[in-house]
Automatic annotation (TrEMBL):
InterPro entries: DUF7962, Glutathione-S-Trfase_C_sf, Glutathione_S-Trfase_N, Thioredoxin-like_sf. Pfam families: DUF7962, GST_N_2. This is GST N-terminal domain-containing protein. Residues 113-233 form the DUF7962 domain. Residues 13-75 form the GST N-terminal domain.
Length: 338
């Protein structure tokens, strides 16, 4: 099995998707714990400016964004078969639809607006400034005001999500969302933001969202967490690695022959004239867009962008999904970096 390192920090909601997946697939990994806010020198050492968590490395390949991480892990030979190997077309459709619900709608933002005002982080100036940078807020914008202003509407939207699950997928008494025998990818895609909300002390607006109002949803979340706990026990505990140690391991990892291609028929390639080996910058378009990673373009397809960094102490191949990411030639005045 290929060496896997997860870059994350305690209790980040998006990392939960990856941690759930690794446990239920029985895939061992090690971890490099990151600060909750910038700077993150461990990633800078690899030439990575991308600021979101989690990231996952497999040898010298570093994957950004949890959807791509899960898609990549589906190709890993673990102790258990990949979820896609045992799911029907209907189950795979449900998995993708639930992923879109949690990742491509306002659900996550709404949950942040519900829980953040009830945590000490709301009064942590460094944290609030960091998250304002994350969403691209300009001068004069107050992140606390942004969170508080949207909270009433956010409660209603999240309540509607609980009601949707209670009255549809879980209404017939099934144990797992896709009627699998054990927790599946559909459960992973849906449970992580809801568990995050109900697990933060004092965050839940219980007059609107509670186990009394939505017993089936709360029972499903509890069932899932118990199954996750058992799966974690069966997996070896991850070793916590320093950033220096990670850099040593990645620098010494055998570099596999690159099979990446830049698709000449891709609309972006046709419009911008991007070429393999060209110095480019890569960034997410939805949040954290100010932080651009620089490297040489290795691959660009309709699913994935791959660049090779050269600004850090160690060169790595960085992979990002096409959705919500952009790549462009580095401005000419900076091209001398190559």
């Amino acid at each position: 099995m290929t060496d896997i390192i997860l870059f994350h920090y305690p209790r980040p909601p998006f990392s939960a998707r990856v941690l759930y997946y690794l446990a239920f697939r029985g895939i061992p990994y090690d971890q490099c714990i990151q600060p909750q806010i910038l700077p993150r020198p461990d990633l800078a050492r690899l030439g990575i400016r991308y600021r979101r968590i989690p990231l996952l490395s497999i040898s010298r390949d570093v994957y950004l964004d949890s959807p791509l991480i899960l898609r990549t892990l589906e190709r890993i030979e673990g102790a258990k078969p990949p979820f896609a190997a045992t799911s029907t077309p209907e189950q795979r459709a449900l998995e993708q639809l639930l992923a879109k619900l949690t990742l491509e709608t306002g659900l996550f933002r709404n949950i942040v607006q519900i829980l953040l005002p009830n945590t000490p982080l709301m009064h942590n100036e460094a944290f609030m400034k960091d998250r304002l940078d994350m969403i691209g807020g300009g001068p004069g914008m107050d992140f606390a005001d942004f969170v508080l202003a949207g909270r009433p509407g956010a409660i209603l939207e999240v309540k509607n999500t609980f009601e949707f699950l209670e009255t549809t997928l879980l209404a017939d008494g099934r144990q797992w969302l896709a009627k699998t025998e054990a927790p599946g990818l559909a459960d992973i895609e849906m449970v992580w933001p809801l568990h995050w909300l109900i697990s933060v002390p004092g965050a839940l607006p219980e007059e609107h969202i509670s186990s009394h109002l939505f017993p089936k949803v709360f029972a499903w979340i509890d069932r899932f967490q118990k199954a996750f706990g058992e799966a974690q026990k069966a997996l070896r505990a991850p070793e916590t690695l320093s950033g220096e140690r990670v850099a040593e391991l990645l620098e010494g990892a055998a570099a596999e022959e690159s099979k990446d291609v830049v698709d000449a028929s891709d609309p972006l390639v046709q419009a911008s004239g991007l070429l393999k080996g060209q110095v480019v910058q890569l960034w997410p378009t939805d949040s954290g867009a100010r932080h651009k990673t620089v490297g040489r373009l290795l691959g660009l397809t309709d699913k994935e962008i791959t660049i090779e960094t050269f600004e850090g102490d160690v060169s790595v191949r960085v992979h990002a999904p096409r959705r919500a990411f952009q790549v462009a030639a580095l401005p000419s005045e900076k091209a001398h970096l190559s």
